[in-house]
Specification:
This protein is α/β, with parallel strands linked by helices and 580 residues long. It has 27 helices and eight strands. The radius of gyration is 33 Å and the shape is elongated. It starts with a helix and ends with a helix.
């Protein structure tokens, strides 16, 4: 039996290799400036971003579940990683990344990949837009060339820092950043095959170097020379205390990494009409994040923009991702001294454009215009992401989404009292037939439509209990439109059964769906009601119910809800005449 990896290379030819080679090199060119930019924005040295792009990129392509996925550092991680670096330090970031890799592997092994799809769209759009705001504002200082800026974990503190140091604005930095930004924006229109970020960095760096050298901060002046050597292998000191300290950040990295990688894989599926393996993708991401910290790399995930570029340039297999990683590594070894001269002002527009592209402004505006519960979820998730933390934002967003969903679903539950409509030949039960002068004191029939779950179970009980007469002999529950029942619904349903049967009543159930029938059999309610009291059709249950009637009460009832009751109310001579 072929493994998934070798299976993805079935029928692979030299022509396929040529396409992957071109795609891998192009994506590698795109990845280099982004890797350095994301690393700097995350509070670590630029070379750590390059290590991540090459090592994680290769491992994700080998072990992941998508043929076209390109892995590496991404903008979504920036505020998370910066917060960890500021709070715990770089070495603890490596440990948190390694722990996140283990969590991702476990998620894949236990087949939790499909659970990611249950995260509501307003939550993902909200925190993604919030991250974009943090990235964009985080580059204002480098764009303006501000000096003596201290990085803070929270948005307000960083904005205050920028405002307090506005007197240190550097005109040369602004000029460099504007040149880079203009090149980034016009390159796709003039030279669509040339990566705009790379062109912008190269042109602006050359201008700064030749026309005002030494006037703007560079990677070398801020972080030292980028080493043109292979990354060193080192196992960080992992202790129980550190594991306990970092389990929260590790879980956040794992969840965000899982979400980003699977979203990227879904995008790739849509572009190629293929199908990824979500659980294998999580395992591949996990392996990459376990190994990468051992070489000094930061957490990685699937990169949507680079994956899309990979596909658009003709990639046909995971080999393009492997080639992309090798190209980044070779470039590091050959060109590191030159990369050290890149101005920080040239990196700022790259990240600002990335932030704008990832902000999903169209989706954001669309959800806001809905003016619904989704709009509230989006807005709260966005605000909390910007002003507090991504962890709190996602937690609150998910809880709010569950609450609003439960409210919406509870409103879908309809419990209606019905009786046969004898004005029509079919005699089907209808709600409009029931009124004060036309009811039955002995038989109560209810149609239940919608799920019986924690948000609606109490409504179900109240609707029935408040309407059942004390002398009712039979309760017929029409449940053909009840798709499921959770444990709370079971509890309320059980309470109705016990209360009604204790008073000597009989419960009949009709139209039960197979899944709900199985659930009632497992929890014992099916046996408690009695197998003989379940019917497929309401008419069968009514015929059964008539056998439980107290004929003396029927003789005195003037409502005549049932034809049979009307017959019973006649004199013996008239009854015999009607019956025969």
């Amino acid at each position: 039996m072929k493994s998934q990896f070798t299976g993805r290379f079935e029928g692979y030819s030299v022509q396929h290799l040529k396409k992957d080679l071109v795609s891998g090199i192009i994506v590698g060119i795109v990845a280099i400036p982004l890797a350095m930019s994301f690393a700097i924005a995350s509070g670590v040295k630029p070379e750590y971003g390059i290590y991540t792009a090459c090592i994680a990129g290769i491992l994700i392509s080998i072990f992941g579940g998508s043929k076209y996925q390109i892995g590496g550092p991404t903008g979504a991680f920036v505020p998370i990683l910066l917060g960890i670096v500021l709070a715990y330090g770089y070495e603890n970031l490596l440990i948190a990344g390694l722990m996140a890799g283990v969590i991702l592997c476990l998620m894949g092994i236990f087949k939790l990949g499909s659970l990611i799809k249950f995260i509501p769209r307003p939550v993902t759009v909200g925190f993604t837009a919030g991250i974009a705001v943090i990235i964009f504002t985080g580059q204002i200082a480098n764009f303006l060339g501000l000096t003596n800026i201290k990085r803070h974990e929270y948005f307000i503190a960083n904005i205050k820092e920028i405002v307090m140091h506005m007197d240190t604005v550097n005109f040369y930095s602004i000029l460099t950043a504007i040149i880079c930004l203009v090149i980034i924006l016009i390159t796709p229109k003039v030279l669509p095959k040339v990566p705009g970020a790379l062109a912008g960095i190269v042109v602006s760096t050359l201008v700064a170097t030749f026309f005002f050298s030494g006037q703007v901060a560079t990677i070398a002046t801020a972080y030292g020379q980028i080493p043109s050597t292979l990354p060193n292998f080192a196992i960080p000191a992992i202790t129980l205390e550190r594991i306990q300290l970092l389990i929260g950040p590790a879980f956040v990295i794992a969840m965000l990494g899982g979400i980003e990688s699977l979203l990227s894989a879904v995008v790739a599926d849509g572009m190629t009409n293929s199908k990824h393996n979500s659980n294998r993708e999580l395992v591949g991401q996990g392996i990459a994040n376990i190994v990468t910290p051992l070489f000094g790399g930061i957490p990685a995930t699937g990169a949507i923009a680079r994956t899309a570029t990979n596909i658009k340039t003709g990639a046909v297999s995971p080999m393009s991702g492997i080639i992309h990683g090798v190209f980044v590594l070779v470039t590091l070894l050959l060109l590191a001294p030159y990369a050290s001269h890149i101005p920080l002002a040239s990196m700022a527009p790259v990240l600002m454009v990335v932030a704008w592209n990832m902000s999903e402004q169209k989706h954001f505006a669309h959800i806001v215009k809905l003016k619904s519960g989704d709009s509230l979820i989006l807005f709260i998730t966005f605000i909390l992401t910007v002003f507090t933390s991504l962890t709190l934002a996602v937690e609150v967003g998910l809880v709010l989404a569950v609450v609003l969903f439960a409210k919406r679903m509870s409103e879908k539950l309809v419990v209606t009292k019905v009786l046969p409509d004898h004005s029509k030949e079919s005699g089907k039960v209808q709600a409009h037939v029931v009124h004060q002068k036309h009811d039955c004191p002995q038989i109560s029939i209810y149609t239940i439509e919608g799920p019986l779950f924690f948000g609606a179970a109490q409504t179900f009980e109240q609707a029935i209990v408040s309407s059942i007469h004390q002398q009712s002999k039979v309760l017929i529950l029409r449940m053909s439109k009840v798709p499921f029942m959770d444990s709370t619904g079971e509890a309320y349903f059980s309470s109705i059964i016990q209360n009604f049967t204790t008073k000597g009543g009989t419960i009949l159930v009709t139209g039960l769906q197979d899944e709900l029938k199985t659930a009632l059999q497992h929890n014992g309610l099916y046996a408690e009601i009695g197998e003989v009291n379940f019917y497929q059709h309401t008419g069968e249950a009514i015929n059964k119910a008539l056998g439980y009637l107290d004929t003396n009460k029927c003789m005195g009832c003037q409502h005549f809800a049932f034809r049979e009751c009307q017959i019973l109310s006649q004199s013996k001579e008239k009854r015999d005449l009607i019956v025969h």
